[in-house]
Amino acid sequence: MRVLMVEDEELTRNGIYRCIPWESLGIGEVYMAEDGEEGLQKALEYQPDIIMADVRMPRMDGITMAFEIRKKLRHCRFIFISGYCDKEYLKSAIQLSAVNYIEKPIEPSEIIEALKKSILQVEDERRRNAMEQEYKAHFKGVLEEIPEEDLVPASWQSSMHMADKIEQYIQENFSDMNLSLTCLADHFKLSKQYMCWLYKKEKQETINQCIIRTRLRWAKEYMRRNPFVKIKNVAAKAGFADSSYFIKIYKKQEQMTPADYLRECNEERNG
């Protein structure tokens, strides 16, 4: 992880450098610049992941510098430092998606927290980019061109988080007979193709397998608690529109029919 610190006050610059535990934060390279022009030059040369910059500096202010850097380095994170509470600067910082806007006098803890937040964002972006490349490679030769909407959504922070949310939604809605890949894709605003690829990549099973597994697990527990229930009612409550299909996949999964399992449950109670 690379950080560029742009600060015209030498005392402040050196003070920040000494009080931040760079290595423990996972930051291996720290570069420094004395003003906006030098900061722009070093940013383009070293391509840092995070840029900490004073707002008001000679030759080129921090905001102007940041806008120039953003033209070339789209994914770097900015942390602005200023001795002035200026609404216009704050507006500009928002436009640049700044991680934080810290006012002087500086508290080291504020900078450390801002750096931690920036690092997480950089790591999430890297993971997303890696996933996007893997996704493209996975479907290479199958699709001539992957539609924009099928790429990894920027709004999601990690693939595991996405898969967990999909699984949670299935667990909460398995009894809905209309639960399907289309329903899930619409709910999460994802393409079916991408959603299925991502889920299987993280969970080592398909979404349909998860739906069936969840329904069967619930059905088995429900029958155990209610050994005199009718099979068709179990199927309906578990989200199966067809009781014959429920019996078929239950037998395949458990090596016995639902009726056999109910009989076992009754014998255990009476025994």
Characteristics:
5 strands; five-stranded parallel sheet; elongated; about 10% strand; alpha/beta; about 270 residues
Distance between the termini: 66 Å
What is the chain-wise order of helices and strands?
EHEHEHEHEHHHHHHHH
Number of helices: 12
Counted beta strands: 5
- Overall outline: elongated
> Into which percentage range does the β-strand content fall?
5-15%
For this structure, the quaternary state is single chain
Q: Main sheet, how many strands, which sense, barrel?
A: 5 strands, parallel
Helix amount: 55-70%
What strand order characterises the main sheet? 2-1-3-4-5
Specify Rg, calculated over alpha carbons: 28 Å
Low-confidence parts lasting 5 or more residues at pLDDT below 50? none
**Secondary structure category:** alpha/beta
List the helices and strands and how they pair.
Layout: E1 2-6, H1 10-19, E2 29-33, H2 36-46, E3 50-54, H3 62-72, E4 77-82, H4 87-95, E5 100-103, H5 108-138, H6 159-173, H7 181-188, H8 192-203, H9 207-225, H10 231-237, H11 243-254, H12 258-270
Parallel strand pairs: 1-2, 1-3, 3-4, 4-5
Describe this structure in words.
This protein is α/β, with parallel strands linked by helices. It has twelve helices and five strands. Strands 2-1-3-4-5 form a five-stranded parallel sheet, sandwiched between helices. Helix 1 (10-19) links the parallel strand 1 (2-6) and strand 2 (29-33). Helix 6 (159-173) runs parallel beside helix 9 (207-225). The protein is elongated and about 85 Å long. The relative contact order is 0.07.
